[in-house]
Amino acid sequence: MGFFEALLNDQFLHQLLVNGVIVGTLYGVVAMSFVLIYKASQVVNFAQGEFLLIGAWVCWWILTDLQVPFFFGFLITLVFMFILGVAIQVVVLRPLIGEPIISVIMVTIGLSIFFQALLNWMFGVFAQPFPTIFENPSVEVFGLHVQTVYVMSMIVSVAIMGAFAYFFKVSKMGLAMRATAFDQQAAQSLGISVRQVFATAWAISAMVSAVAGVVVGVVNGVSSALSFFGIKVFPAVILGGLDSIIGAVLGGLIIGLLENLAAYADVSLQWGNMQRIAPFYALIIILMIKPYGLFGTRDIERV
Amino acid sequence: MAGAMMRPCGDFRTSYRADTTIFADAFSRNSVIAGVGLLILSPWVLDAYWMNLFIQIGYLGIAALGLNILVGFTGQISIGHAVFFGFGAFASPFINEQTGIPVLLCIPLAGLMTAAVGLLFGVPAARIKGLYLAIATLAAQFILEDFFARASWFTGGVAGAMTNPISIAGYDLYEDWQFFYIVLGFVVIMYLAAANMMRTRDGRAFIAVRDHYLSAEIMGVNLTKYRVMSFGVSSFYAGVGGALYAHYLGFVSIEAFNILFSIQFLGMIIIGGLGSVMGSLMGTAFMVFLPEAMDALARMVEGGWLDRALNLQSSINNLREMAIGAAIILFLIFEPDGLAHRWRQIKAYWKLYPFSY
Questions:
Q1: Cβ partners under 8 Å of residue B135, min gap 6
Q2: Can you tell me whether residue A146 is helix, strand or coil?
Q3: Which among A57, A210, A207, A46 is positioned nearest to A119, based on CA atoms?
Q4: Which of A12, A148, B95, B346 has the greatest number of beta carbons closer than 10 A?
Q5: What is the pLDDT of residues B260-293, one digit of tens each?
Q6: Per the domain annotation, does A208 fall within a domain?
């Protein structure tokens, strides 16, 4: 049997590919919320992973300690994340408008280690499982066993992407955001409150990340490992182009698949820890060949 | 030091020679000489605890200066400085084991080896800049960390690498105060070299690249060369700092050089002041003393209500990390030019005292 036939018949590989698509869509969702902040306010958010972490821990705490049913607990989490997103923008980021890029990057890095330590302190370093939400732990899709939560995560991710598309195409706030991203001064002169746009971008981004955080938390349990999503987002957004929402989704998918193919190489070719590191090799290669990604706008500099 | 951006009024320079001295004025030169003199005498007064802290400030300060040359002077952000520090920490014992060159010589050699690696990872800087470059260095952090775990011939793998102490004329230096003098020597040489470099053509080219790279290019500064070169210089400093760290501790673990460590280096230069040579040392001192001060505070309130409420014994590590994050955020918002700027203001205040209006 040839190598490629073996690949085609490999149950393990199929499983990994399905995982890749599912994890990839989640990366896509997080990348989308990262791009939202970058597009609206030109801030590179190194604390995106912590948004996932905060969302997941808060939801976990409401569900286990306060015994609130899942649906309401989830809603409360979203409201909390909305307030947190606005608060971070107003308190921390607003004073830094107009500062050089390093200050803005560093302040989000500072936020990231602050929140990570805070959450470790409040909830401990051990992974905590979510209370069970679904009756059937797994369902069969195209002959493969897929966990119900994964199916849910796919549905949630696609729903979020649809909502994003609707929001930016139709709603007034979405149009205001696109206008601000395109040209801040022109938007301001047309009566758009740029401050409000910035705050809304952070709020939405925090909420969407929290949704992703809760989904991952339900699947794997909540632990500080969640914040690594915030780092994995960089290969995805660079691949797709830093300011393209479609690019973020596609980039997330590709990175998710790449990661799981690397996991296959780890097991079958004994390459060691490639799953963790492959996205970063991809990142360097993309930056060298096509720094603005698949769909990003090229910076054209005029003197 | 080095190209003071702000000068008190009435301080005029009448020649280029006067404008490019290493020290801004006689006072700062004398205070640095006095400071080094005091440090030379300090082992007679201070105990091993303080020596340990000073040594930490020394080797971290050298690496932080390297990062400041890259970030503060050339304007290229690096989020992977700790792995270069780590590379130096593995390279020095590696050279020492393989060739038997004395440790004291291995330290600058390790710096050179790290500089070569830094140049390699600096190559993307020829093409990309700003934010994209920052993300590329983030990738460098993870790729080199992975390399440390794989290359057990170089790093000793999970077991880590054992290092020999520095020996001079067959006499091993085990005591903290002996090592302190070695570190002090390296700090003085490296800091003077950096301050001196900033007044040469290369140093001014770095600053020109940072301030306006297009104008710099028009003035005949080779952008690619200086962007990549600043990675090399920065890695050289990181490598020397790392090598000193390795020979001080006697043992290097592959897990020490994670991203949090890189962020701490960035924190040091932000707190000290971007683009300030002495600021790098001030920021490092702040970062070293901050956790110590928190420990001291925790010991002071031990057993009290605050201790019980916060459960300090188990949470002090998290509180330290929170303090680092908070310090970075607060400095960026309230004192973006860092401690070096505050220091200049204090000096200016006393210069005019008591007629400071």
A1: A234, A238, A283, A287
A2: strand
A3: A57
A4: B95
A5: 899 999 999 999 988 888 899 999 999 999 988 8
A6: yes
**Shortest Cα distance, chain A CAs vs residue B178, angstroms:** 36
More confident residue, B154 or A85: A85
Residue A2: pLDDT over 60: no
Which residue in B75, B124, B319 is closest to A288 by CB distance?
A: B124
The helix/strand/coil state of B33 is helix
Residues of B in Cβ contact (< 8 Å) with A98: none
- Is A212 within the bounds of a domain? yes
Q: Is residue A268 part of a domain?
A: no
Q: With contact defined as beta carbons under 8 Å apart, do A30 and A233 qualify? A: yes
Task: State the CB neighbour count (10 A cutoff) for residue B47.
Answer: 10
Q: What is the extent of the structural domain holding A182? A: 33-227
H helix or E strand, kind and range, residue B162: strand B161-162
Residue of B131, B210, B260, B274 to mutate for A, most A C-beta atoms under 10 A: B131
Total of domains in chain B: 1
Q: Is residue B145 part of a domain?
A: yes
pLDDT tens digit sequence for B189-206:
999 999 999 888 899 999
| DSSP classification of residue B175 | S
Overall size of chain B counted in residues: 357
Asked if residue A5 belongs to a domain, the reply is: no
In a domain, B19, yes or no: no
Contact A294, A240 (CB under 8 A): yes
Structural domains counted in chain A: 1
Q: Does A96 touch chain B (CB under 8 A)?
A: yes
Does B290 fall in a domain? no
Specify if B341 maps to a domain: no
Euclidean distance between CA atoms A39 and A37, whole angstroms: 6
Q: B310 to chain A nearest CA, in Å?
A: 10
Alpha helices in chain B (DSSP H): 16-19, 26-41, 48-68, 81-99, 103-122, 130-150, 152-155, 176-197, 201-211, 213-218, 223-249, 259-272, 277-300, 305-310, 312-334, 338-352
- Is the Cβ pair B319, A117 closer than 8 Å? yes
Question: How many CA atoms are closer than 13 Å to the CA of A258, on its beta-carbon side?
Answer: 20
Each residue's pLDDT tens digit, B201-251: 899 999 999 888 888 989 889 999 999 999 999 999 999 999 999 999 888
Instruction: Answer for the pair A32, A25: CB distance below 8 angstroms, yes or no.
Output: no
Q: What is the pLDDT of residue A240?
A: 87
* Interface A:B, Cβ pairs < 8 A: 120
Structure confidence at residue A14 as a pLDDT band (50, 70, 90): confident
ipTM for the predicted complex comes to 0.84
Of A103, A121, A234, the CB nearest to B315: A121
Question: Does the beta-carbon distance from A234 to B329 stay under 8 Å?
Answer: no
Distance between CA atoms of residues B54 and B176, nearest Å: 10
pLDDT at B128 over 60: yes
- Residue B204: both structure tokens together: 């001014």
Contact A281, A290 (CB under 8 A): no
Report the residue from A106, A272, A287 with minimal CB separation from B328. Answer: A106
Q: Indicate if the pLDDT at residue A3 is higher than 60.
A: no
- The mean pLDDT of chain A is 84
Q: Which domain holds residue B69?
A: 25-258
